[in-house]
């Protein structure tokens, strides 16, 4: 069996750090730097050190294997690109500040490629001319450049990063749909092999243009994308790509707000307002200081409670007062509610026109302050804290579209799914892959035609598909680390086994060398900690580096055993020296 060189920590270009880097906020960034996988050069620009580079190469390997398996062919286009093709598609301008632009010595414009649709379309145009040549899928694993506004979390959002981008070329729409499905399946295999928790969500096609588009989002609290999914139907979408109906209109008696009015002693903002006369008292009732965020635009309505007089109801509304007042009037039973017009406002001099602010609360002037969604039956804004004190959560209201739907970016937990078949739950994710049916936007720009069966020119249709290869290294670290360090899945790990010499005895050292040699011969990738450091330091580093299996040659050596630790499950067990290789292969 062909074997590699054992990686000796006494020799490896590696310095682990005890402290988190000052600029790191998320765990993957802290750990990748502390474990000596990456080093910062400038904002969003990082160097890969030996172990980091190995992980990157492993992720690339998995990606290449799955791309090759769907018949995609690897090529490599330059990163340094002339302006003209991007001028032809309009993206030289559209990309704005996101593009790294530069000039050569003759003052000609160049850019560093942020994505390569233009160049791939031109490449195919240069080589192919018949429908018989298609379909074809080409890909590259390439360094991309984007002058991101907020580079973040180390390699998670870099300004220089590695992407696998592929492009499909078909004659028919059906062909494009097939190439798209092939990629979708390949991406599932890639992310499954890497052990990631992810969702596939409907996405907008944005600057790329085209029709169908889906994103692969790794589930993570630190993600910058928010997605919603419907438990009942399995529907999932990036919030950028979903618009849901606003809560249905109800008559006022059916609403939770009406029930509050009818239940004596229920904590409401009304009770808060009636009790609080000073800012301190408001603070005490709220359980926190009043802030500017507590100021909501309002409309005033009069409500006739069953068997009661008209009462003044101030309804806090974010957004356009007139539009919301009309909708509110429509959503409440008309006979019970009257929206007070601007003239009427003058009768209530204690109100700051258009706003109910902390001043009004403190001045004990507003009787009821209700979020419109309470009226519409969706959300409570009052409650009690653990001491039984009344607390109020003034929910910032959301923006509604003029047609009464909820704005895409504002969709959230509890909203009705677009098909009405259930409710949505929201979560955050990191985009790890994105697939597009581009259609003919780019092939039109370059007049990319092939001759069809009848010898007539047919415009080629195109798909584009990206995987964030370097980002995946951070995402794996983010999803799989624990408080002690990194934990790599076998497919991405820089090694298979980490052998720690934790016994000063010369026999034990020689024995550890021999175990490492046998593991290497059996085809495993071995790291051997042969440094002159204390066992404590070595164990800590083994946890930090995150190789899935750790073999400790320690005190048990004299009794003929070594310890095998599983970095992922945390389990450890003793194994006879002669059984180590069998146990690990
Ligand atoms: P994001 O929404 O995170 O900015 P994007 O939608 O701009 O990503 P695409 O143009 O779809 O990205 O590129 C394909 C893939 O490249 C993305 O799914 C992502 O995994 C990766 N990627 C994009 N921008 C970066 C970046 N700045 N650093 C690392 N990876 C990135
Ligand atoms: Mg982006
Ligand atoms: Mg995106
Ligand atoms: Mg994208």
UniProtKB/TrEMBL annotation:
Top-level EC class: ligase
SUPFAM superfamilies given in the database record: Class II aaRS ABD-related, Class II aaRS and biotin synthetases, YbaK/ProRS associated domain
Alphabetical UniProt keywords: Aminoacyl-tRNA synthetase, ATP-binding, Cytoplasm, Ligase, Nucleotide-binding, Protein biosynthesis
Role noted for this protein: Catalyzes the attachment of proline to tRNA(Pro) in a two-step reaction: proline is first activated by ATP to form Pro-AMP and then transferred to the acceptor end of tRNA(Pro). As ProRS can inadvertently accommodate and process non-cognate amino acids such as alanine and cysteine, to avoid such errors it has two additional distinct editing activities against alanine. One activity is designated as 'pretransfer' editing and involves the tRNA(Pro)-independent hydrolysis of activated Ala-AMP.
GO-annotated molecular function: aminoacyl-tRNA deacylase activity; ATP binding; proline-tRNA ligase activity
Intracellular or extracellular location(s): Cytoplasm
Gene it is expressed from: proS
Residue intervals of the Aminoacyl-transfer RNA synthetases class-II family profile domain: 39-489
PANTHER family the record matches: MITOCHONDRIAL RIBOSOME PROTEIN L39/PROLYL-TRNA LIGASE FAMILY MEMBER, PROLINE--TRNA LIGASE
Principal cellular location given in the protein's record: cytoplasm
InterPro entries the UniProt entry points to: aa-tRNA-synt_IIb, aa-tRNA-synth_II, aa-tRNA-synth_II/BPL/LPL, Anticodon-bd, Anticodon-bd_dom_sf, Pro-tRNA-ligase_IIa, Pro-tRNA-synth_IIa_bac-type, Pro-tRNA-Synthase_IIa_type1
Matches recorded under HAMAP family: Pro_tRNA_synth_type1
Source taxon at top rank: Bacteria
Pfam families: HGTP_anticodon, tRNA-synt_2b, tRNA_edit
Entry EC number(s): 6.1.1.15
Any GO CC annotation of this UniProt entry: cytosol
UniProt keyword annotation of Nucleotide-binding present: yes
Keyword ATP-binding: yes
GO biological process: prolyl-tRNA aminoacylation
Oligomer status and interactors: Homodimer.
Organism, scientific name: Hoyosella rhizosphaerae
Record field: catalytic activity: tRNA(Pro) + L-proline + ATP = L-prolyl-tRNA(Pro) + AMP + diphosphate
Name assigned to this protein: Proline--tRNA ligase
Record remark on domains: Consists of three domains: the N-terminal catalytic domain, the editing domain and the C-terminal anticodon-binding domain.
């Amino acid at each position: 069996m062909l074997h590699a060189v054992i990686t000796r920590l006494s020799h490896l270009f590696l310095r682990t750090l005890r402290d988190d880097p000052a600029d790191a906020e998320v765990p993957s960034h802290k750990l990748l730097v502390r474990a000596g996988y990456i080093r910062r050069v400038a904002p969003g620009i990082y160097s890969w050190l030996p172990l980091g580079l190995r992980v990157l190469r492993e992720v690339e390997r998995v990606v290449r294997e799955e791309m090759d398996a769907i018949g995609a062919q690897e090529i490599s286009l330059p990163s340094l690109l002339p302006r003209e093709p991007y001028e032809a598609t309009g993206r030289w301008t559209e990309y704005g500040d996101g593009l790294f632009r530069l000039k050569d010595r003759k003052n000609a414009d160049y850019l560093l490629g942020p994505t390569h649709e233009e160049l791939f379309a031109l490449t195919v145009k240069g080589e192919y001319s018949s429908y018989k040549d298609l379909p074809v899928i080409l890909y590259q694993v390439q360094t991309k450049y984007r002058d991101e506004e907020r580079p973040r979390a180390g390699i998670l959002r870099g300004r220089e990063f590695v992407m696998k981008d592929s492009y499909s070329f078909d004659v028919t729409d059906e062909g494009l749909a097939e190439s798209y499905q092939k990629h979708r399946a390949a991406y599932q295999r890639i992310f499954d092999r890497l052990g990631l928790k992810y969702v596939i969500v409907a996405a907008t096609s944005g600057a790329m243009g085209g029709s169908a588009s889906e994103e692969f989002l790794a589930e993570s609290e630190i993600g910058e994308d928010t997605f919603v999914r419907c438990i009942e139907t399995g529907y999932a979408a990036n919030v950028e790509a979903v618009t849901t109906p606003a809560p249905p209109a109800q008559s006022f008696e059916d609403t939770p707000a009406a029930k509050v009015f009818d239940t004596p002693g229920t904590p409401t903002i009304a009770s808060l307002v009636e009790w609080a006369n000073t800012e301190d008292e408001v603070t005490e009732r709220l359980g926190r200081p009043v802030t500017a965020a507590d100021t909501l635009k309002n409309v005033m309505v009069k409500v006739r409670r069953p068997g009661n007089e008209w009462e003044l109801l101030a309804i806090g509304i974010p957004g356009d007062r007139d539009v919301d007042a009309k909708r509110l009037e429509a959503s409440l039973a008309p006979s019970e509610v009257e929206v007070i017009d601007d003239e009427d406002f003058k009768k209530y001099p204690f109100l700051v026109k258009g706003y109910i602010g902390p001043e009004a609360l403190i001045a004990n002037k507003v009787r009821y302050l209700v979020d419109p969604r309470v009226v519409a039956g969706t959300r409570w804004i009052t409650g009690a804290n653990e001491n039984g004190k009344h607390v109020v959560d003034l929910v910032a209201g959301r923006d509604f579209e003029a047609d009464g739907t909820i704005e895409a970016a504002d969709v959230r937990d509890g909203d009705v799914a677009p098909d009405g078949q259930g409710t949505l739950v929201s979560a955050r994710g990191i985009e790890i892959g994105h697939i597009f049916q581009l259609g003919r936007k780019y092939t039109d720009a370059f007049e990319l035609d092939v001759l069809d069966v009848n010898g007539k020119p047919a415009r080629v249709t195109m798909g584009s598909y990206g995987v964030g290869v370097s980002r995946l290294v951070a995402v794996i670290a983010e999803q799989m680390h624990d408080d002690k360090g990194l934990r790599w899945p076998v497919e991405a790990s820089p090694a298979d086994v980490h052998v720690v010499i934790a016994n000063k005895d010369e026999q034990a050292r020689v024995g550890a060398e021999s175990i490492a040699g046998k593991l290497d011969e059996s085809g495993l990738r071995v790291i051997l900690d042969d440094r002159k450091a204390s066992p404590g330091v070595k164990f800590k580093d083994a946890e930090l580096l995150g190789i899935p299996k750790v073999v400790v040659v320690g005190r048990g050596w004299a009794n003929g055993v070594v310890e095998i630790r599983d970095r992922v499950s945390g389990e450890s067990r003793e194994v006879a020296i002669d059984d180590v290789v069998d146990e690990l292969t």
